[in-house]
């Protein structure tokens, strides 16, 4: 009985399962299809998305490569596209001043890398002097600017082994190296060298200036000797030169020296000093005047009270005329004529000799004066013995002084 009920239940459950399967089969199939379809679509979309991403990366890389290639191409074609244009070097040459006699022509030569122009000429009358600069264009590199008298070349000799003109420039701007975009200004000044003018004048009748030899020392070295000239002799000097002018042989006459008022650091008794540079004309910086005259000192020597020859006595002269100062002379009854510079002070000093007492008379302590003879007389007096003859204790005569 129990078995029968079980069989019936099993049979009923089987029938219900078949019915449910039949009813639910279309829906199941539809749901399954939808799931499969969804999965398929997702897979396709993912694949499509992956493809798109890869394509996007490729596009970015392609754009980047293209941009870099274009940039490199641009740099190769025009590297200065975004930079300002760099100008060639430029020189300005200014003739600042020209102080020379006459109208000599000077040449300015530019040595460098393709200078334009490479040279030009000018004269002291050039209107551009001090007003307008000469512009020179050239390539980068070394350069040098030279100035010299036209036709003589840069290695031109002059008197005293220096050029005939004092040519000065702003040194570091007139030579060196120059680069792109750089500008230099070279200033040039030209002057005659300073001069020492020496005038010789002789006063005594029958004696000429040309009878005397004039010597010139420059920086403690004799550089010239010439016959004196009434109208003057020119000596070229250089700035800073020390000079000394003298008469080589005064022939027993007096010599007076004087300097022009524009002389600096000079000795009042000699044409001597230093050539100083100033802003004035450079032509004649010093005038030296030499006057030869009969300014003399005549010394007569006498002896009194004895038997000593006059030539035995001596005297010396103390003076600010160095040609006679400290010199000793022998006595002379007719007198010794001694040339002395006009204006020079002097003192005749007799030297002691045995028991003689010297005395002075006349112009023995005075000053030299141009055109005049000063007379001095020295007398050497022998001492007189003041002695008596007395009889001593022994009864013999004895000399008592």
Could you walk me through the main structural features you see in this protein, from its secondary elements to its overall organization?
This protein has 1 helix and 25 strands. It is α+β, with helices and mostly antiparallel strands and 401 residues long. It folds into 3 domains: 90-191, Immunoglobulin-like, CATH 2.60.40; 195-293, Sandwich (Immunoglobulin-like); 296-382. Helices cover 19% and strands 42% of the residues.
Largest beta sheet, briefly? Answer: 7 strands, mixed
CATH topology of the largest domain: Immunoglobulin-like
SSE pattern, N- to C-terminal: HEEEEEEEEEEEEEEEEEEEEEEEEE
Helix coverage percent of residues? 10-25%
Q: Which stretches are low in confidence, meaning pLDDT under 50 for 5 or more residues running?
A: 1-54, 56-61, 70-75, 261-268
Average pLDDT for all residues: 77
Structural class: alpha+beta
Q: Brief description of this entry?
A:
With 401 residues, this protein is of the alpha+beta class. It has one helix spanning 2-77; strands spanning 90-99, 106-116, 119-122, 134-149, 165-169, 175-178, 183-192, 195-202, 213-218, 221-227, 233-236, 242-247, 254-259, 271-274, 284-293, 296-304, 314-319, 328-330, 336-339, 345-350, 356-362, 365-367, 373-382, 388-391, 397-400.
Protein topology:
Blueprint: H1 2-77, E1 90-99, E2 106-116, E3 119-122, E4 134-149, E5 165-169, E6 175-178, E7 183-192, E8 195-202, E9 213-218, E10 221-227, E11 233-236, E12 242-247, E13 254-259, E14 271-274, E15 284-293, E16 296-304, E17 314-319, E18 328-330, E19 336-339, E20 345-350, E21 356-362, E22 365-367, E23 373-382, E24 388-391, E25 397-400
